């Protein structure tokens, strides 16, 4: 079955810790398409430092030369908090019977029971959980119970149904966070090789996050 992967995020800003794990998932699952979905209003965090349009422009710059990746801007056009369940419901209605895979870092997966209508997510998509340095520790009981029903060990299984399974995908650990990048920029430190070069160039050109303007 055709398989589509989606990675949602605040992307404040996008960095190689988003892109390398997603690229490895794209290869491992043989995704027909990888969609990056910037959140306009991320539901569970303080307001992003940079507006949604600029964060999305940086995501576009990050993947401009990658034929396997696209930027899906639907959350930018939706009022209210950018609930993932709403995004997945829309995608499911548009894409029909594809295998739809929501990609999450382990830190984000752990918070799933706090998400809006979180059990409905499994009606619309599979979950592909990637490692993230520093994201170890136990999972909430509600999530462990859900995993007992849904966990699969072979990623190929995700291609055989449209939604409802959870797979852990091993990826190269990349210890980069947007918080670290914002901090580095605020202190005037380099972010070269932490973000894609076209993103760094745009940060510099526009003086974003306190980047000293050229
Ligand atoms: N270094 C990383 N390795 C694996 N997954 C990551 C990494 N950074 C972010 N992710 C995942 O990407 C998605 C979007 O993350 P987000 O945009 O919040 O980035 P972040 O670096 O965690 O941001 P912040 O530091 O501002 O909290 C989440 O599912 C998150 O788990
Ligand atoms: O739908 C929810 O309730 C929900 C709660 C927290 C986070 N999310 C989504 O998870 C993704 C990562 O969130 P964040 O805040 O870590 O960037 C992003 O796409 C958010 O919209 C979604």
From TrEMBL:
Q: Specify the superkingdom.
A: Bacteria
**Reactions listed under catalytic activity:** nicotinate beta-D-ribonucleotide + ATP + H(+) = deamido-NAD(+) + diphosphate
Write down the PANTHER family for this protein, in alphabetical order. Answer: NICOTINATE-NUCLEOTIDE ADENYLYLTRANSFERASE-RELATED, PHOSPHOPANTETHEINE ADENYLYLTRANSFERASE
Name under which the protein is recorded: Probable nicotinate-nucleotide adenylyltransferase
Instruction: Give the protein's function.
Output: Catalyzes the reversible adenylation of nicotinate mononucleotide (NaMN) to nicotinic acid adenine dinucleotide (NaAD).
Q: Which E.C. number(s) belong to this protein?
A: 2.7.7.18
Q: Which SUPFAM superfamilies match?
A: Nucleotidylyl transferase
Q: Which GO terms describe its molecular function?
A: nucleotidyltransferase activity
- Per the UniProt entry, the signal peptide is none
Q: In which pathway does it act?
A: Cofactor biosynthesis; NAD(+) biosynthesis; deamido-NAD(+) from nicotinate D-ribonucleotide: step 1/1
Which family does the UniProt entry place this protein in?
Belongs to the NadD family.
**Which ranges carry the Cytidyltransferase-like domain?**
6-183
Q: Which UniProt keywords apply?
A: ATP-binding, NAD, Nucleotide-binding, Nucleotidyltransferase, Pyridine nucleotide biosynthesis, Transferase
Cited Gene3D superfamilies: HUPs (3.40.50.620)
Entry-linked InterPro entries: Cyt_trans-like (IPR004821), NadD/NMNAT (IPR005248), Rossmann-like_a/b/a_fold (IPR014729)
Q: Which Pfam families does the UniProt entry name for this protein?
A: CTP_transf_like
């Amino acid at each position: 079955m055709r398989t589509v992967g989606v990675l949602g995020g605040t992307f404040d800003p996008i960095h190689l810790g988003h892109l390398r794990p997603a690229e490895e998932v794209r290869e491992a699952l043989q995704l027909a398409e990888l969609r990056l979905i910037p959140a306009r209003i991320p539901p569970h965090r303080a307001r992003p430092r940079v507006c949604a349009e600029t964060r999305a422009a940086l995501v576009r710059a990050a993947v401009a030369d990658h034929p396997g990746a696209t930027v899906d801007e639907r959350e930018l056009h939706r009022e209210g908090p950018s609930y993932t369940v709403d995004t997945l419901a829309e995608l499911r209605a548009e894409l029909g019977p594809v295998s739809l895979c929501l990609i999450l870092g382990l830190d984000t997966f752990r918070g799933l029971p706090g998400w809006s209508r979180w059990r409905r997510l499994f009606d619309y998509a599979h979950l592909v959980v990637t490692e993230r340095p520093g994201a170890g520790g136990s999972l909430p009981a509600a999530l462990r119970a859900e995993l007992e029903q849904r966990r699969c060990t072979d990623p190929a299984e995700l291609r055989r149904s449209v939604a409802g399974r959870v797979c852990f995908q091993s990826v190269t650990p990349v210890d980069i966070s947007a918080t670290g990048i914002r901090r580095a920029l605020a202190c005037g430190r380099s972010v070269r090789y932490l973000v894609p070069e076209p993103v760094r160039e745009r940060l510099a050109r526009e003086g974003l996050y306190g980047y000293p303007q050229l």
